[in-house]
């Protein structure tokens, strides 16, 4: 008898009847082995038979005995993923990379999205994953508070923090972002801009701090004036609002910490009658799929978030099998488009 199989449950007075696999088999009129194949997602079950078994599972409220299977194999082949905010482009693509890499390695994924960053929410998420017998977990929680809560939590399985990789290339990942932001700033200085203003991300994100550090380093090393950065929250609306805090009479170049805020910046500049790049050059960060369709197409830093997710899975699987895996950082790169030019560049007028 496999770990999934059980004889029909016996009922004692006062017991709550919990359906087992044998009950599903009896209701569907198939063998327990067939039910087990359906539960495991085996393609060897005929469509009509699968539908009959799935209907019986739904009617009975049957849940596979993951605990029994795990006791037999000592592995659930399930990876837990905790995400603080899956709506942002970087987080969403990182999650997609994690899910694909897990599938390629033969692991299922259990995703828990946090409602807030309180320590109690982190602990509840960990308990939910523990109840599903995950072999390990990946946490896509870039904010300092959520990372601190994870480090202080009682965790019964190995885990990895994304995108810093929790010690496996963490410093390299940080400095790769610093270098990319520095290259973006250098690009604007090389075009002839006297200095570069900055719309930064939230102060409690390591990525935001890395990008600000790269911007500031480039200016300091070239003995340029370092303006006061204006802070946004990654959203286009915050980018739009940030323009109102800038001394636009002296701004000729802007480095914006992500593309969504850059979209808001472009809109706010246009609303004030300022041309990009004729009056102000703008560089973003992330290279979202729509960046090449912004007006004008956005010069930005390309970040391979899916590869970050894949590398997190490599690190975690290495820990599960007692191997040290250090895949190194994913190196961002500058993609030059039409939103940057020398100061005062006149745009060519296209014939109508």
TrEMBL record:
Keyword Transcription regulation: yes
InterPro entries in UniProt: HTH_LacI, LacI/GalR-like_sensor, Lambda_DNA-bd_dom_sf, Peripla_BP_I
Pfam families (UniProt xref): LacI, Peripla_BP_3
PANTHER family in the cross-refs: HTH-TYPE TRANSCRIPTIONAL REGULATOR GALS (PTHR30146:SF109), LACI-RELATED TRANSCRIPTIONAL REPRESSOR (PTHR30146)
Name assigned to this protein: LacI family transcriptional regulator
Entry keyword set: DNA-binding, Transcription, Transcription regulation
Positions of the HTH lacI-type domain: 19-73
Gene Ontology molecular-function annotations: DNA-binding transcription factor activity; transcription cis-regulatory region binding
Originating organism: Kineococcus rhizosphaerae
């Amino acid at each position: 008898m496999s770990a999934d199989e059980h004889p029909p449950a016996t009922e004692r007075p006062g017991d709550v009847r919990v359906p087992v696999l044998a009950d599903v088999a009896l209701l569907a009129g198939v063998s327990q082995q067939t039910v087990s194949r359906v539960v495991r997602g085996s393609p060897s079950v005929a469509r009509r038979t699968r539908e009959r078994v799935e209907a019986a599972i739904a009617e009975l409220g049957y849940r596979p005995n993951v605990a029994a299977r795990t006791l037999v194999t000592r592995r659930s082949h399930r990876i837990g993923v905790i995400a603080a905010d899956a709506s942002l482009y970087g987080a969403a693509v990182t999650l997609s990379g994690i899910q694909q890499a897990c599938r390629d390695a033969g692991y299922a994924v259990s995703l828990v999205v946090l409602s807030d960053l309180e320590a109690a929410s982190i602990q509840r998420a960990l308990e939910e994953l523990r109840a599903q017998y995950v072999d390990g977990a990946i946490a896509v929680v870039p904010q300092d508070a959520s990372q601190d809560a994870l480090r202080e939590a009682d965790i019964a399985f190995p885990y990895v923090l994304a995108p810093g990789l929790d010690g496996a290339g963490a410093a390299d990942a940080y400095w790769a972002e610093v270098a990319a932001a520095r290259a973006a700033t250098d690009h604007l200085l090389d075009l002839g801009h006297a200095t570069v203003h900055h719309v930064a991300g939230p102060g409690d994100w390591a990525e935001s701090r890395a990008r600000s550090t790269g911007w500031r380093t480039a200016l300091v090393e070239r003995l340029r004036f370092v303006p006061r950065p204006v802070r946004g929250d990654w959203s286009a609306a915050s980018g739009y609002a940030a323009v109102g805090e800038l001394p636009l009479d002296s701004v000729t170049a802007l480095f914006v910490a992500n593309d969504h805020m850059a979209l808001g910046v472009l809109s706010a500049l246009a609303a004030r009658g300022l041309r990009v790049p004729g009056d102000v050059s703008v560089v973003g960060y992330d290279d979202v799929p729509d960046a090449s369709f912004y007006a004008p197409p956005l010069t930005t830093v390309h970040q391979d978030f899916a590869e970050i997710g894949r590398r997190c899975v490599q690190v975690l699987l290495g820990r599960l099998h007692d191997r040290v895996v250090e895949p190194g950082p994913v190196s961002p790169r500058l993609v030059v488009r039409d939103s940057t030019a020398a100061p005062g560049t006149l745009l060519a007028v296209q014939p109508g």
